[in-house]
Amino acid sequence: MPLILTSVEENIGFITLNHDEKRNALSEPLVRDIIGALADFRRQQLRVVVLRARPGAKVWSAGHDVSELPESRRDPLGWDDPLRHLIREIETFPAPVIAMIEGTVWGGACETAFACDLIVATPKSTFAVTPAKIGVPYNVSGMVTFMNAAVLRIVKEMAFTAQPIAAERAERLGVINYLVPVAELEPFTLTLARQIAANSPLSISVMKEQLRILAGARPMSPQGFERVQGLRRIVYDSQDYREGIQAFKEKRKPVFKGS
Ligand code: YXS
């Protein structure tokens, strides 16, 4: 069974996450397939990409594949982590990527949806930022993705509680663009994609790249970055980090001791 399905309709590309057995966890093989599909869509000069799960999905994506997270003593979200590659590929794709959300969205998948240019979701969708639940020290560019998706107080609420927020609230907060009934999700998203595809691809592409550069331009001194990396290392070298991953694998609640 392929991990993703792809199709092209007019000049719109569709990528369907197709690994429900693992709740579309963003494993290295699945991310590699998504990136391959984006490269193919880039070659075809498609004007919009829609990233979705299968119709009726209860889980859009369960986030980073926890089984691929390093046990300890290695940055779990370093530059070459598959999730980091995926985020960068979405952000630099030369046309808008629409996240069409049906089902729940977790952790790295929440960042993936937020890295997309537009989000259309159904009322039963939810969005959860989960590092605190697992004990992961999220990375700097990932935090910027969240900060560009929601006001800081909401980012803190999502990051500190690790609780899902409902799509209805996300739409009210401006975190997603549209909230549509599940029966209208596909036609609505297709209409939105067609509207974009009818406009100038060159103008849109350069505005997308400008917005990426401007949104990512955050003041952080070299010393500030080194301090953050040192703090993150304390976390991923900690017993709590190991406990969080072990507890996930053992399907039990973690017991964090702060060390
Ligand atoms: O036991 P089997 O082999 O059937 O596999 C189970 C789960 O282990 C697997 N699975 C995952 N495998 C790797 N990584 C994952 N993130 C992941 N999520 C699920 O899929 C099979 C079916 O899962 P199950 O039985 O739990 O399904 P369910 O329908 O009862 O529940 C669906 C979820 C999504 C509510 C549940 O699977 C869940 O809570 N998953 C974890 C969501 C989460 O915390 N994701 C964050 C991953 S870590 C991450 O993204 C970043 C590093 S961070 O944490 O920093 O944001």
Offer a few descriptive terms.
four-stranded mixed sheet, 15% strand, binds (2S)-sulfonatepropionyl-CoA, 259 residues, single chain, six-stranded mixed sheet, alpha/beta, 2-enoyl-CoA Hydratase, Chain A, domain 1, 11 helices
Description of the structure:
There is one protein chain. By secondary structure, the chain is of the alpha/beta class. It has a domain at 4-184: 2-enoyl-CoA Hydratase, Chain A, domain 1. The protein has eleven helices and ten strands. It has helices at residues 28-43, 82-92, 108-115, 131-134, 140-149, 152-161, 167-172, 185-197, 201-216, 222-236, 239-249, and strands at 4-9, 12-17, 48-53, 59-61, 97-101, 104-106, 118-121, 126-128, 165-166, 178-179. The strands form two sheets. It has a six-stranded mixed sheet with strand order 1-2-3-5-7-10, with helices on both faces. Strands 4-6-8-9 form a four-stranded mixed sheet. Helix 1 links the parallel strand 2 and strand 3 (48-53). The protein starts with a strand and ends in a 10-residue tail after the last helix. (2S)-sulfonatepropionyl-CoA is lined by residues 22-23, 25, 59, 62-67, 104, 106-108, 130-131, 133-134, 136, 138.
Short description:
The protein is an alpha/beta fold.
Please give the count of helices: 11
The CATH homologous superfamily of the domain at 4-184 is named: 2-enoyl-CoA Hydratase, Chain A, domain 1
CATH-assigned fold name of the domain at 4-184: 2-enoyl-CoA Hydratase, Chain A, domain 1
CATH class of the domain at 4-184: Alpha Beta
Major β-sheet strand ordering? 1-2-3-5-7-10
The geometry reads as globular
Question: Which ligands accompany this protein?
Answer: (2S)-sulfonatepropionyl-CoA
What radius of gyration results from the CA coordinates?
A: 18 Å
Q: Give the overall pLDDT as a whole number.
A: 98
Distance between the termini: 42 Å
Which residues sit in consecutive blocks of at least 5 with pLDDT less than 50?
Answer: none
How many beta strands in the DSSP annotation? 10
Annotated CATH architecture of the domain at 4-184: Alpha-Beta Complex
Helix percentage range = 40-55%
